[in-house]
Model the fold of this input.
Amino acid sequence: MLSMLAQLAIGAIDLAAAFLVIYGLKRMSSPVTAPSGIFVAGIGMLAAIVASFLYVFAVRAAALPHLPVNVGLAIAALVIGGGAAWWSGKKVAMTSMPQMVALYNGMGGGAAAAIAAVELLSNQAQGVTALSITLIGALIGAVSLSGSLIAWAKLDGVIEHPLRIKGQQILNGLMMLATLAVGGYIVFLTQTGSVPLLPVSDLIYLFFACALVFGVLMTLPIGGADMPVVISIYNAFTGLAVGLEGFVLQNPALMIAGMVVGAAGLLLTLLMAKAMNRSVSNVVFTNFGAIVKAKPGAIKGDLKPVDAGDAGIFMRYASTVIIVPGYGLAVAHGQQKLYEFVKLLQAAGVKVKFAVHPVAGRMPGQMDVLLAEANVPYDMIFQLEDINDEFSHTDAVLVIGANDVVNPAARTDKSSPIFGMPILNVDQAKQVYVVKRGEGRGYAGIVNALFYGENCNMVYGDAQAVLIKMIEAVRGLGTAAE
Ligand code: NAP
Done:
C-alpha cells in the first residue's frame, strides 16, 4: 500500500518536473522572461531529484543491498557537482559562456551514457527493443560527451586549429560502422546465446571506446568558429540520449525532459544554420572561417579613421542613431559604457535604437543578454526584420565590435562564404562609425566592403576604451544631461 502511494507520488512529482522544465524553456524564449524561466526549470530539476530519492527509498530499498553507500555517493555527487556548477556559473565571463555550455552539455551526454553502461553491465536491459534503445542512447550520449569536450577545448583555445587528415570522412564512417557493428554483435549474442568472441562486458567497453573515439574524430576537423552550432547539435544529441535512457528506466521525467531538450537543441541548430544561410552538413563537413584572401580590386575605397571624440560629437548632434552591437562588444565588456553613452545621446534629444542580428556574437541571444546586463530597456532593442528598413533614413549608425552581420557581401558576392545570410542594412545609413581594434576579420574570415564605403569611418580601439572617449567628448560639450 505504502509502495503504491509512493509510486503515485513519484509519478505526480515527475509530471510536475516535466511540466516545469517545459514551462521554463518556454519562458527562456524572451530576454524579459528568461531569468525566471531558468529558475522555474531549475525547480523542475530539483523536483526530479526528489522523485529519484523517493523512488530509491520507497520502491527499490529492499532490492538494494548497499543502500546507505549508494545514497551517500549520490549525495556526495550532488554536492560536488552542484557546488562546482554554482561556483563556475557565478564566475564565468560572458565571452566564455559557449565553453561552459559545451562542458555541461558533454556532462549531460556522459550521464546518459553512464546510465546506459550500468544498465548494460548489470544486464538490466532485456529483449531486443530495450537493449537496442539502451545501446543507441549509449552511443549518442558517448559521442556527445567526447565531442563536447573537443568543442570545449577548441573554444577555450586548448586546441587551436582544426585537425584534418586525408580521408577523414572515410575514417569517420568506418569508426561509426565499427561502433554499430559491436553494438549489433552485443544484441545478437544476448538474443541467440551464441559463444562470444570476447566476454560480453569487454564488448560493452569496446562499444563505448569506439563511440567516444567517433565523437572525437567527428569534432576534430570542424573549425573552432563553428563550435556554437556543433554544441547545439550535441545539445540535441544529449537530450535524445537522456530521453532514450528515460525510456529504458521507465522514468517519465527523464523521457519528457530529454525529448524536450532534444527537440529544442534541434530547432536551435536549424535556426542558427538558417540565420547564417548554411546547412547543418555545411557546418559539420566544411572548413568555414578560414581566412580568405581578398580578391585584388574586389573592394574599392579606403579605410578612413576618425577620432573617437569626433564620432561621439557627431552622433550627439544627429536626430536618429542606431547601434549595432557585435562579438567585439562582449570581448571588451563595453555594454555598461555603451548604455552610458546612449543615455547621454537621449538626454540631448537623439532618438536611439539598438539593432540585434540573430547570430551576432558567438551564441544565440548573446547580444540580448549583454544589453540586458547593462539594463538597456527591451523596447529600445529591435531584431533584424523589425529595423532593417530604418537604416536608409537614419543619420548615424554605430557598429560596435560587429563585422560579419553588417557585411554587404552577403547580399551581392555569390562567392562569399556568407552569401545569402540576412544582414543588417547598415551600409544604407547616411553616416556609419565602426568601432574595432584594427583590421581583424570577423568569424567568417572575410574582408568587409562596408568599412571602405564613402559613408563609413573607422574608430580604432578597444570598444570600451573608445566609448569612454566618446562619453568624455559629449560630456565636454556640456549637454542637457549635465
Ligand atoms: P564578428 O563578425 O565575429 O566580428 C567581430 C569583430 O569584433 C571583429 O572584426 C574584431 O575586429 C572586433 N573586435 C574584437 N574584439 C574587440 C574589442 N575588444 N573591441 C572592439 N572590437 C573588437 O562578429 P559579429 O558581427 O557579431 O558576427 C558574429 C559571427 O559569428 C557571424 O558570422 C555569425 O554567423 C557567427 N556565429 C554566431 C553564432 C551565434 O549564435 N551568435 C554562432 C556561430 C557563429 P578587430 O580584431 O579588428 O578588433
